[in-house]
Amino acid sequence: MTVPLAETATAAPFVEKQPLAPYEAPERPSLVGMPRAALAEALGDIGVPERQRRMRVQQIWHWLYVRGAQEFDAMTTLSKELRAALANAFTLARHEIAAEQVSVDGTRKWLICLPGEIGGAPHEVECVYIPEADRGTLCISSQVGCTLNCTFCHTGTQRLVRNLTAGEIAGQVVLARDRLGDWTPAGGREGELEKRLVSNIVVMGMGEPLYNFEAVRDGLNVIADGEGLSISKRRITLSTSGVVPNIARAGTEIGCMLAVSLHAVTDELREQLVPLNRKYPLRELLDACRNYPGVSNARRITFEYVMLKGVNDSLTDAKALVRLLKGIPAKINLIPFNPWPGTTYECSDWEQIEKFSEIVFAAGYASPVRTPRGRDILAACGQLKSATEKLSARERLALRAMALTD
Ligand code: SAH
Ligand code: SF4
After folding, report:
1. What is d(CA 405, CA 333) in angstroms, rounded to the nearest whole number?
2. Cα–Cα distance list, 276 to 54, 262, 268, 340 (Å)
3. SS3 96
4. Is 381 annotated in the active site?
5. Which of 77, 273, 312, 366 is the one with CA 20 to 30 A from 17?
6. Helices (H) and strands (E) in the chain, counts
7. Alpha carbon of 287 to those of 1, 110, 175, 394: distances in Å?
């Protein structure tokens, strides 16, 4: 274990932002996305006797996550009295959408409005849906802004940070299924995953999920629940910038697939790009990956590597990358840098990305660069907000959300 460097030791950017903006629960909370235990407690609050709670949770769960019920009155297996009591104390409110965009290739983006502090401005996060021939991937956010401040990332420059609740995390899947009409109709067969539009989840939108561990864990467990949304944990990938102590926890307490934002092959460069590296250097990060619970050749860790011109894109870097990952069951995703107003970084030239990727390919890693999708609507997570603020980065091919699916 290395001792973290004192934050004042260098002029380098700080590692973490403090403090977090608090979450203020609304007077009538929405049941959408709420974990089972919280739902049982909520039922207790309106007087449902303890011996009935399990069964009621089960019934409500089915209505919420298999049928996509939007009103308590649709829950016909519950008594009229219970439906009225529920409606009195709770809602089935979905996230409010500030903007929705649909690309010609079917990619969809939603800018979601979340309540801020009472009297304060609402917060905004993004959610992106990327359909492909054999799957549909939803990229969800875990924080408003981000606790960390990677120098190439637009989200990292935002001052304000608020953790999403578990309900707000799982609620993004409910919202996507609503908008896509992706619920099981009455009388339809449940759990036909191959027919589901949303079949895969990546936690790669705004925020660092392992700095909001409990809510992300509980939210993903709602998403994976086999009697509800039913998205298998093998189809859920969480991306982290390398919060080492929580990597093993993600394996044991969530059991999802892991993606790691590597971006550099030396500590010196990684400290500049991902300041968290000062706290958790490469050696510790790669050890945590090697020991990730459940890792195997069938369940590889994805290493993300953003291509920054003249910074980390030399062929020497490519060879060092391959050497560094030796022995770890890995996939490599090269992400073309998606520029934003004010950044000093540039995306590597396409020829350089190709040369870099040839070295990675020759080392046995298949198709390391993804084809950009949804270009016409800037479907990279982190870009919708900029687009609506008219801060366009439209011309670039970089779409980081694309690096994220298998
Ligand atoms: N905080 C987590 C997950 C969200 S970021 C993480 O860092 O892994 C998802 C991915 O997008 C990360 O690999 C991140 O490094 C990358 N990314 C951030 N800004 C980018 C940009 N402008 N262009 C390309 N990729 C970017
Ligand atoms: Fe946060 Fe990830 Fe952006 Fe880094 S890359 S600032 S960890 S969202």
Report:
1. 9
2. 42, 11, 12, 21
3. strand
4. yes
5. 312
6. 11, 11
7. 11, 37, 37, 38
Return the closest-CA partner of residue 123 out of 264, 275, 21.
21
Please list the ranges in the chain whose pLDDT falls under 50: 1-11, 378-406
Is any atom of ligand 1 closer than 6 Å to the C-beta of 177?
no
Note if 389 is an active site residue.
no
Measure the CA–CA gap between 207 and 154, rounded to whole angstroms.
Answer: 11
Q: List pocket residues of ligand 2, CB cut-off 6 Å.
A: 146, 148-150, 153, 155-156, 207-208, 241, 261
> Quick one: which H or E segment has residue 53?
helix 50-65
For residue 161, the model assigns a pLDDT of: 86
Q: Which two tokens stand for residue 21?
A: 């903006």
Rounded CA gap, 129 and 20, in Å?
28
Q: Tell me which DSSP letter residue 21 carries.
A: P
Distances from the Cα of 376 to the Cα of 102, 325, 393, angstroms: 9, 35, 11
Nearest Cα residue to atom 13 of ligand 1: 261
Q: How far is CA 72 from the centre of its chain?
A: 29
Q: Is the CB–ligand 1 distance for residue 370 below 6 Å?
A: no
Cα 284 from Cα 401, distance rounded (Å): 27
CB 90 within 8 A of CB 80: no
**124, 126, 208, 304: the active-site residue:** 126
pTM, two decimal places: 0.89
